[in-house]
């Protein structure tokens, strides 16, 4: 009964949608009442304490921090981007400094109050919203750029900075962020770090494990870990920052980030291509890695269903190619330092690929506006997919040669009840599998899961390439990780957060905690 | 007295050179006798047990594994590359399988016998040799290549594979290793991973934290952690492999590695340049990052003392430039996919740099033989530095603009008693500071330390950019890491290796364990 005892320590209130397996826990109204009382006390105590400890120059921090009055904002913070997960938190805090985060966590930990760290709340696995009525700590108010080392391209900023804002700032200084993703207008760098976001530039600049140079993190007990180095190389002891990259806020709250940013290269070229079959897409990737080599900066693919979805549901977009009878589309981007040479290189590559019949048709963007349209098609798929009704989203890493098989098998398996869409970062072996239906249904879910996880596991893939596990897949971790490894993860969780207050029910199965 | 109690559990024998601070421990001959008896028993028990547990098809494993008979080999394994650290292990084991490593560690852990994992023993901080008479586990016999995914360039191999052998194998398949270093002919990939080796290709391909895709690791208690994924993206739970990258064998023994290897690009060009002052070197780096951009693959610098050292002490080398009155030399390598374009690009860059007076003189290698000679000069510095007598080696990360100041300050500080040499990976902000004297002396050491560490700490640098802490700098960790961070490292060490049998006295100060 260890797991139930621990769960009750976190003072569950009541059960939200999409948390069926957790609904069986023994959490009655008496506990809810207790949590309510504690919450009132918390707000009172928190206000009093903050007033005492914060400098007098920040008199509005307390009123700004506690947002329970604003029901709309609270409701939005309780609901995930897909409207699939909804929590019931009554308390949304927006700390403005690391010290405040530390004090909030110290307070919550000493009283065993569960918290959910939240960035832009753009995640797709229910990792950034409460399951019950956990305290929400949103980092949006910590949005300052701290420094930019213009010789080495090292940016240091607070965790709440929005990715697109950082990229815009860097672009004006001759650098770019090493990651880019569809949610860039809302997602925060702290959330990107905590979920080890991948995205569109991964093939060129690699993982955040390679690009993050330093972090400041607040642990569950309020301890501030200053690992905010700005050095490319530092082999002094265990590199603990990696524990917090991708741990989805379950080991600590990232408050500051330093990141290596590549020089902004002057020449970007983008091609929108059609392939008749998946094998051609694979061969094209192999050739692109060799022939485009050092200038290749994106290799994205979409099937015809994905394209139809975007063109049918988003305004002002059309297929850049005259006919639309192709089965697959590929976006290839190159980024280099020589406009005319780079463009000629991409043109020669395409010509050669068409001669070899790898590519059936294609067009190179002639200006920035056209390039934006091409990207809008690729980046709009996620947005378009939720317009049709319900969408089951899977984010798989698979060996490239097997990657599209699951789309075809799933399509056969589901027949007419669903439209199965496949797209993603082919260059990284990352498939986004979207299954669109009129509404969420247990019958359909039973046809999809556990099949999709078993299939992925059988092919030694990952059931979460870049989205993380969150609430959706915490119990599925064993499809991708050995039991010894999960056990060690649990030991580390218990070491860093012995009261399990940080983002409970996410990432790891409750059975190991 | 916690630290002494724990130390005695590891059964110290006697004190070796260079371990002064540890010599004060209460370890008399009675303990030595006890360890000797236990060791005899260990050999006997180990042989018996291995005979029982290993398949009959491997009858020679036992005799091959236990090498106490071969005194020369044992002596070599006890001594570090610089002949600065010497242990007294009587037992050198060469396991051939992960299962054997597991059984050895299970055995040692249950009897609290300390072990030292060893790769090519090319480290520079005393991390790979015993301090006293720890059991040596050398990975040289686990040297098989397991697989190469030729579409994605993912190599999986055993930990004992020698770096150069891996690179030669990959080259024949159209790939290269993402790291390269002077010790490549002896160092093992498991050691590279365990020390988070940096080296010459870091500026292009980044850190091992970005390139290692999976590891198999044996923990102190013999548990095998299978994290040997081969996927570029995998966000399923905490990415624990990073704990073992750079932890110098103190958290587990790496037995297998999978690593992303870049495509071998066909065109490599190398320039050997002279600059009159350090500011020009910095400006040249800034320009190279922008103008050479995506083809830049190395930016190394050496001062005139480094060049003089190599030319004076290694056979068959001469300065590629006609006059030798320059203060600094820079090696710039580009790697790309187009021979004539890449060469023209480097030539244009050099011409422009000479016009701007950043470069005083320079030459581009005309063939592979000339390129090898240029590289031999850079890579020979470490070898040449030990030919003069004693050498104090420091490996610092510093902000580029401050990086050479420490060389000049140290030179003034030491005067005639030492020659101070500065070189390294300028593109990564990594200085190798070598101080050459006739012999090791406490007086000279007192002039160097703690000054060098205090200076580095004051400038927010790292006291170990890529060499690790080992025995030499375990007690110095606080110059680069906060006390909270070191405390968490200690907690993780105690979690993974509660008996502290793995590489004791290294990486972390004894005071926190």
Automatic annotation (TrEMBL), chains A, B:
This is D-2-hydroxyglutarate dehydrogenase. It comes from the Eukaryota. Belongs to the FAD-binding oxidoreductase/transferase type 4 family. The keyword Heme does not apply. Its cofactor is FAD. Pfam families: FAD-oxidase_C, FAD_binding_4. Coiled coil: none annotated. GO terms for molecular function: (R)-2-hydroxyglutarate dehydrogenase activity; FAD binding. Residues 85-264 form the FAD-binding PCMH-type domain. Keywords: FAD, Flavoprotein, Oxidoreductase. The keyword Flavoprotein applies. GO terms for cellular component: mitochondrion. Its EC number is 1.1.99.39.
